[in-house]
Write a structure and sequence with these properties.
By secondary structure, the protein is mostly helical. The chain contains four helices and no strands.
């Protein structure tokens, strides 16, 4: 059984925007609203910081994620898949609670 703290940590680390996308939820905010634009910008910044941390950790673990630029690309996805394989996790190439727990202790 998966540990609940992993899911909570995943949601806290990724911020609302990435968690919403990962869980397949559709946000109900109006895109033109000024407050939602500020929230979107903050969520993008949190997501970029998380991706940068993931890329740094993948590179340190010997998986070539490319430069730690905060941009999710094919090298980062391939490095996540290789990391998942090395830790006997399901190879999705995506960040999930178990991958984050193994990568960012």
């Amino acid at each position: 059984m998966a540990k609940i703290p992993s899911t909570r940590r995943y949601l806290l680390l990724t911020g609302a925007a990435l968690a919403v996308a990962a869980l397949g939820w559709t946000p109900s905010v109006v895109a033109g609203d000024a407050a939602s634009r500020r929230v979107d910008k903050a969520a993008r910044l949190r997501e970029k910081r998380l991706i940068r941390r993931v890329q740094t950790a993948l590179n340190a673990a010997g998986h070539d994620a490319g430069p730690a630029d905060g941009i999710w690309g094919p090298r980062t996805s391939a490095a996540v898949s290789a990391f998942q394989e090395s830790k006997n996790l399901e190879q999705t190439g995506q960040l999930g609670p178990r991958t984050l727990d193994a990568l960012l202790p």
